[in-house]
Amino acid sequence: MAYILRKILHRRLLEISFPRTFQITLSKMAKSKFEYVRSFETEDKLDPRHWIVVALQCRNYDRFSEGQNLKRPNDLRFIQLVEASIKAVMEDFKELVLGYGFAGEFNFVFPKSTTLYKRRGPKLLTNLCSLMASSLVHKWPNYFGSEPLCFPPVIEGTVHLFPDDQALRDYMTQRQLACHYCNLYNTVFWALVLQGHTLEDAADVLKGTRESEQNEILFSKCNMNYNKEDDVFKKGSIAMRTWKQATVSGPDGLTTHRNHSCIINMYKDFSKDHFWKEEFLLEQPTKANAKTSYLKAFEKKIALLPHTWIVVRIDGKGFHKFSERHKFAKPNDDRSIELMNKAALKVMQHFPDVVLSYGQSDEYSFVINRYSKMERHGNKIMSSIVSLFAAMYVYNWNNVFENVTLEYSPAFDARVVLYPNNSCLRDYLSWRQADCHINNMYNTCFWMLVQSGNYSRREAEEKLRGTVSKDKRAILLNEFKRDYDAEDALYRKGTILFRHDCASSTTSLKTTFNLSYACDELKKGNSSNEAYSVVKEHTDIIGDQFWTERPWLLGTEQCAKTVDDLDNFSQ
Ligand SMILES: Nc1nc2c(ncn2[C@@H]2O[C@H](COP(=O)(O)OP(=O)(O)OP(=O)(O)O)[C@@H](O)[C@H]2O)c(=O)[nH]1
Ligand SMILES: [Mg+2]
């Protein structure tokens, strides 16, 4: 959810000048006693005047290609799917100037001057990451026809800041070299398998070999010349933004010239001067450079303190427009809520360290066990969760929305916030549920007034201006004979998903980031495995009752002791 403060300011602006149409957070929210938890959120702005590279990597790409039965060593359908998805991301994020993908890796380059999202690293990363994941799922049938997608892409992302043009060139060259090494190895490996070697034999033949030896094996044993392989496999896919001038004639007959950009695909060498002097012009002089190990230091990491609660909150990008475009019911669309809940459930099944999640409107918060042993790398955690969420949102779309076509791939942003103790964590969750309550009460009233036919949107808005909860309850009761408390708890309280008991929570700790997803699990959408057992409720989480009845959720000393015991387990 966008910052409440921004919403309040936005609302005040709207109040002055425009009629509001739907879903406004009330200024009363600003007075919520829980609001202080916002101060735990950080912006993580990236330094100015640096190239920003968002690097995305499909987790377990090998297992993905094996499970999906992709052609080895390269499946052109998957490459085309990746190219189309990179293009979709670059078309949505117009500031991106360069994209590069091979196998399960995708890189996106923002120019040094970009001010998108005020250069907030997590926002840039997670928007791209989720859009890439949702595009891969959305466009899958265009390239694979009726062959089902069995594995949701889980994409881990990192952010890199490069202060000069040489570092950018070196980074891109390094990634292309990785593509080359990976492709050469795979080409020889699968050629050997085709010759009758077993997988183990082929691996043995290639063990410890260098590039020149691999070329030689390919030539002598398989009668193939690597140089003759297609560039798309050897070099990976480059997507570059170019600007063209178009002549547009206006209604008055006058013609104007406008610059518009388009994305072109190419398979060129990043190591050669030609690319940086003729295709993608750099300001500073650069040269080919074989030493790239220094680049590691340019990764912008978000280190998360141990023993703190980690909350990852995701929020739909531009869901106001998305909901209008897909004709969501107002004020609440059961299908959209179901889709969000299904995606969140999948996240909880996939990431056993998520002990509880809370969702409302287009947002979901995932709470990660404070004693989790997972790598406390903020960017990787956020991106993995948001990519899986976005992928599942699209994957389940047809089942839930049935006859409504998904018009475009949705994106979600994510942020990671740390809370030092149980009390802050509870206040955070209370803040989100209070937000749900306030929004829902306003929206229920607003749409009852409008849908009654007796009020225009502007009139309904005027009537509700300055009202407090008591007034809205009275409007609902007096004008519509509706008791707000009798409205569905799904809308009033949002959705809480939680692990069903301490035993399963402890098991989950042992299986940190266990990637046990499988084709049938994806289809089932639920797992019978006790460790993944998740309960769904629409109840109050602001009061004590929910927590005292479920002591295992926030953990006790006993739980912490169990965690210490986990040191004995090999991870
Ligand atoms: N009709 C309808 N709209 C919904 C529903 N759930 C969410 N939305 C829309 O999603 C929006 C979510 O609010 P925000 O996240 O603040 O708005 P946004 O358009 O996504 O903007 P950003 O998050 O800043 O990109 C709401 O204002 C609604 O317009 C629903 O069940 N029905
Ligand atoms: Mg949103």
UniProtKB/TrEMBL annotation:
<dbReference type="GO" id="GO:0008193">
    <property type="term" value="F:tRNA guanylyltransferase activity"/>
</dbReference>
<dbReference type="Pfam" id="PF14413">
    <property type="entry name" value="Thg1C"/>
</dbReference>
<dbReference type="InterPro" id="IPR007537">
    <property type="entry name" value="tRNAHis_GuaTrfase_Thg1"/>
</dbReference>
<feature type="domain" description="Thg1 C-terminal">
    <location>
        <begin position="425"/>
        <end position="542"/>
    </location>
</feature>
<dbReference type="GO" id="GO:0006400">
    <property type="term" value="P:tRNA modification"/>
</dbReference>
<keyword id="KW-0547">Nucleotide-binding</keyword>
<feature type="domain" description="tRNAHis guanylyltransferase catalytic">
    <location>
        <begin position="293"/>
        <end position="420"/>
    </location>
</feature>
<feature type="domain" description="tRNAHis guanylyltransferase catalytic">
    <location>
        <begin position="34"/>
        <end position="162"/>
    </location>
</feature>
<keyword id="KW-0460">Magnesium</keyword>
<keyword id="KW-0548">Nucleotidyltransferase</keyword>
<keyword id="KW-0479">Metal-binding</keyword>
<comment type="function">
    <text>Adds a GMP to the 5'-end of tRNA(His) after transcription and RNase P cleavage. This step is essential for proper recognition of the tRNA and for the fidelity of protein synthesis. Also functions as a guanyl-nucleotide exchange factor/GEF for the MFN1 and MFN2 mitofusins thereby regulating mitochondrial fusion. By regulating both mitochondrial dynamics and bioenergetic function, it contributes to cell survival following oxidative stress.</text>
</comment>
<protein>
    <recommendedName>
        <fullName>Probable tRNA(His) guanylyltransferase</fullName>
        <ecNumber>2.7.7.79</ecNumber>
    </recommendedName>
</protein>
<keyword id="KW-0808">Transferase</keyword>
<comment type="subunit">
    <text>Homotetramer. Interacts with MFN1 and MFN2; functions as a guanyl-nucleotide exchange factor/GEF for MFN2 and also probably MFN1.</text>
</comment>
<dbReference type="Pfam" id="PF04446">
    <property type="entry name" value="Thg1"/>
</dbReference>
<dbReference type="InterPro" id="IPR025845">
    <property type="entry name" value="Thg1_C_dom"/>
</dbReference>
<comment type="similarity">
    <text>Belongs to the tRNA(His) guanylyltransferase family.</text>
</comment>
<keyword id="KW-0819">tRNA processing</keyword>
<keyword id="KW-0342">GTP-binding</keyword>
<feature type="domain" description="Thg1 C-terminal">
    <location>
        <begin position="166"/>
        <end position="249"/>
    </location>
</feature>
<dbReference type="InterPro" id="IPR038469">
    <property type="entry name" value="tRNAHis_GuaTrfase_Thg1_sf"/>
</dbReference>
<dbReference type="InterPro" id="IPR024956">
    <property type="entry name" value="tRNAHis_GuaTrfase_cat"/>
</dbReference>
<dbReference type="GO" id="GO:0005525">
    <property type="term" value="F:GTP binding"/>
</dbReference>
<dbReference type="GO" id="GO:0000287">
    <property type="term" value="F:magnesium ion binding"/>
</dbReference>
